Structure formats: structure tokens, C-alpha cells
User: Which sequence fits this backbone?
């Protein structure tokens, strides 16, 4: 019995090359992700971005990086990326329709964290709730009322309603001793 080394070599080469490429892709991607996270974190710290926003950006970066890496690895192993994207899109659409209200609050929270119309410690009024902002999360904004009651306001409500910020209100000018009114000309005399 003789072993055909050329046939064995071609079988081993055909099966190991895509697997080695996939492993190499994962290693390079992991190193690239670490570099990207370190660079993003230092850039956001220099820009004095809020800790919650930093966490949100880093998690988003990790998710996008892993999905793209997975598509590259599966494409290298011979799986059609177009089919994977189509299936992922259909599942994502069904999932997003099922959790529509949660996603509305989430994206409103992302907007509030990036836009920052108010900060932690500000006294705000949203609809019929007034209190000091204790936390701005990605789903809810936490207020502490004057009665020391903790109120969780969904971010979609905060995003869609008029919000009055009492912390940054300017004091009303106080009338002086009345001489300023006497010096004003009467509208009929002008």
C-alpha cells in the first residue's frame, strides 16, 4: 500500500488554508479592536466626554467590529456573506419591530447623552414631573423630586416633550424705586 503524498498534500492544503486565514483574521481583528478601543477611549477622555457616552460608544464599536469580523471570517470559509446579511437583516427587522418602544427610548437616550440639553444635578421639569437629575441613562432619565421620590422618566417622553431647565434660569430683573418708569416717554408722545 502506497500513500500518494501529492494527493494528501493537496487535501491538507485545501482544508487548512481557509481555517488558518480565519484564525489569522480573528487575531488581527482582536488586535485592531484593542487599538481602536484604546484610541477612542483616550480621544473621548481628552474631549471630556461623559462616562455613560464613552461606554455607549465603546460598546457600539465592539458590536460593529465583531459583526464585520464575523462576515470576513465566514466569507473566508466559503459561506456566502450576502445570505448571512439577508438573514441577519430579516431577523433584525422582526426583532426591532418587537421591541420598538425600547428602541425609541434607547435612541432618545443616545441623543440626550450626545446633545446634553441638561446635566446630572440640574433641576428640570418634564410634563408634570419636576426634580433634580440623578442619572441620564440610555433608556430612562432618573429624577429626584422635592418630596425625595425617585422618578424614572422614559427618554422618549423627555425627547418628545418640552423640558424646562430651572438650574440655568436667569433671575428676573427687580424693579428699582420707580424712577425708571417715570423717565420712559408715553407712547402717545413719541
Assistant:
Amino acid at each position: 500500500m502506497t500513500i500518494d503524498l501529492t494527493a494528501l498534500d493537496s487535501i491538507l492544503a485545501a482544508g487548512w488554508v481557509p481555517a488558518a486565514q480565519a484564525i489569522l483574521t480573528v487575531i488581527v481583528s482582536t488586535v485592531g479592536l484593542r487599538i481602536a478601543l484604546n484610541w477612542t477611549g483616550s480621544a473621548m477622555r481628552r474631549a471630556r466626554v461623559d462616562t455613560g457616552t464613552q461606554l455607549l460608544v465603546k460598546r457600539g464599536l465592539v458590536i460593529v467590529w465583531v459583526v464585520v469580523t464575523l462576515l470576513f471570517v465566514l466569507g473566508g470559509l466559503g459561506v456566502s456573506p450576502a445570505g448571512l446579511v439577508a438573514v441577519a437583516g430579516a431577523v433584525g427587522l422582526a426583532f426591532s419591530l418587537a421591541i420598538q418602544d425600547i428602541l425609541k427610548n434607547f435612541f432618545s437616550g443616545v441623543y440626550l447623552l450626545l446633545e446634553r440639553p441638561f446635566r446630572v444635578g440640574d433641576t428640570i421639569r418634564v410634563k408634570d414631573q419636576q426634580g433634580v437629575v440623578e442619572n441620564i441613562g440610555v433608556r430612562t432619565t432618573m429624577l429626584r423630586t422635592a418630596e425625595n421620590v425617585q422618578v424614572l422618566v422614559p427618554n422618549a417622553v423627555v425627547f418628545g416633550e418640552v423640558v424646562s431647565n430651572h438650574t440655568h434660569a436667569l433671575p428676573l430683573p427687580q424693579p428699582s424705586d420707580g424712577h425708571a418708569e417715570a423717565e420712559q416717554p408715553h407712547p402717545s408722545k413719541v
Notes: Helices lie at 5-46, 51-76, 81-98, 100-115, 155-160, 179-183. The two ends are 120 Å apart (CA to CA). The longest strand covers residues 129-136.
